[in-house]
């Protein structure tokens, strides 16, 4: 169908429209669920749970299943497809702020499947507000997904400030493995650890404005500019009194 639409638009002289394809479920082999998406002519895709499944374990995405790597440690986007990372496809019952930041810094467009709104903001029984297809499992409370909702807004604000189209996931530039960068111009580094330990970032020569953002408290702090005379690895430590995941934003100045 995608090929047909693309051919038709070309024959009619239309401007090409981006066409998407999302994960199908259930499938015979869950580990291969995303292969048709990546192998297709789709311009954007929405992958899903493709982790190995234990024969005697619970089905993927059900309570008790191990978290998918798309949630816990998403792969870096290589640019072949625009990826809409939808929690409906790998973690429909849970999401948090760290998920949104990990997805964003790895080059994805995070989408929250917001089951928390099924029974409204003030559910009479927020722990089990399930309806429709998810009634048998219940649903997450509205409050449990609030950090994810806010994080989507936080990542959007950074996306709007940066020259995002020039930035790519470059995990090797930091010891955290989470770096979105336009080398020598802008760096957005996620430290996902709850303990707030120091981390290294490889910077190109230049002077950079420094800004910190706390994932949990959503507090922003500006620090002194950093000057690097040659390409080298620089150590950074989060300035927040409350330890937890943090984001470092570096922008070239001068």
Q: Profile the largest sheet.
A: 6 strands, antiparallel
Total count of strands: 12
Beginning-to-end CA distance, first to last residue: 51 Å
Report strand order across the widest sheet.
5-6-7-12-9-10
Strand/helix succession: HEHEHEHEHEEEEEEEE
Structural category is: alpha/beta
| Average predicted local confidence, pLDDT | 91
Report helical residue fraction: 10-25%
Q: Which runs of at least 5 residues are low in confidence (pLDDT < 50)? A: 126-136
Work out the strand percent.
15-25%
Cα gyration radius (Å): 20 Å
The figure for the number of domains is: 2
Q: Outline, from the CA principal axes?
A: globular
Q: Can you describe this structure?
A:
With 254 residues, this protein is α/β, with parallel strands linked by helices. It has two domains: 2-161, no CATH class; 164-253, Sandwich (Immunoglobulin-like). It has five helices and twelve strands. The strands form three sheets. The chain has a six-stranded antiparallel sheet, with helices on one face. A four-stranded parallel sheet has the order 1-2-3-4, with helices on one face. Strands 8-11 form a two-stranded antiparallel sheet. Helix 2 (35-38) links the parallel strand 1 (20-22) and strand 2. The longest helix has 16 residues, at 146-161. It is globular, with a radius of gyration of 20 Å. Residues 126-136 have low confidence and may be disordered.
């Amino acid at each position: 169908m995608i090929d047909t639409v693309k051919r038709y638009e070309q024959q009619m002289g239309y401007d090409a429209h981006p066409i998407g394809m999302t994960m199908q479920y259930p499938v015979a082999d869950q580990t291969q669920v995303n292969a048709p998406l990546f192998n297709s002519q789709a311009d954007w895709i929405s992958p899903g749970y493709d982790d190995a499944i234990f024969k005697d374990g619970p089905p993927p995405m059900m309570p008790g299943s191990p978290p998918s790597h798309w949630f816990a440690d998403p792969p870096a986007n290589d640019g072949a497809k625009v990826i809409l990372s939808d929690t409906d496809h790998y973690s429909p019952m849970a999401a948090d702020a760290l998920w949104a930041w990990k997805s964003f810094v790895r080059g994805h467009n995070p989408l929250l499947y917001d089951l928390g709104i099924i029974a409204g903001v003030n559910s009479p029984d927020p722990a089990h507000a399930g309806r429709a297809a998810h009634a048998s499992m219940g649903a997450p409370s509205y409050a449990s997904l609030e950090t994810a909702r806010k994080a989507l807004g936080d990542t959007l604000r950074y996306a709007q400030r940066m020259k995002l189209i020039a930035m790519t996931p470059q995990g090797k530039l930091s010891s955290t493995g989470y770096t979105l960068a336009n080398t020598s111009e802008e760096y957005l580094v996620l430290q996902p650890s709850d303990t707030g330990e120091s981390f290294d970032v490889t910077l190109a020569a230049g002077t950079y404005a420094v800004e910190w953002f706390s994932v949990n408290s959503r507090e922003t702090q500006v620090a002194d500019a950093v000057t690097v005379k040659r390409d080298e690895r620089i150590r950074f430590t989060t300035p927040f009194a409350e330890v937890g995941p943090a984001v470092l934003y570096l922008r070239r100045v001068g």
